[in-house]
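=== RUN LOG ===
request id: a7f3
mode: sequence -> structure
chains: 1
length: 199
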Amino acid sequence: ELLGYRDSGMAGTPQNGHADALINAPQEDVAARVVRVIRSVRPHVVITMEPGGGYGHPDHIRMTEVVVRACGLAGDAACAASGAGPPWRPERLYYFGFKRSLMRAAFEHVRSVNPESDLLRIDTASMGIPDEDVTTVLDTSPYAAARHAAIAEHRSQAPPPFETLPDDLYREWFEKDYLVRVEPPWGGGGQGTSLILRL
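=== RESULT ===
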């Protein structure tokens, strides 16, 4: 379900100032819209971007803040978001992101094949999920081709940033999703213990 906001662009770009950009929408208004979606769909599991936005995109960061807030509000009977149905609190909330080691390996590959790439202007020091924080790995290999094709359909993603990845990195990038369980807090097996699930 699309909420109708405009892409805010990366921090410091002219798109930041557009009146319809997501980052200019009041957070509580956006959260109320997400509450309506949660109460309508009644999901058991919600997955949102990790707090750093993957690569620092302001919209990714904002939506993570909004989704975390909305998951709490959706289950609160006192929250009377306009048009929202009865309370519903998802059982689990996860952050999605790329393992930090995978991000670094991918960017090193880009550097080796295209040292002039705009991607290399991004500070990768704290990008991605620390490997030891990953709690869940989803095997998405049956959907790798469809996922690659979907990315290629977006003009802003053409050519896909990591089109030339070697096979091992490609499989890590497109055939696995890395998650951090936020709610309920992960308590099993210590940090770095991953549950591998096949979709």
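=== NOTES ===
Strands lie at 45-49, 92-97, 136-139, 176-183, 195-198.
The CA atoms of residues 65 and 96 lie 13 Å apart.
=== END ===
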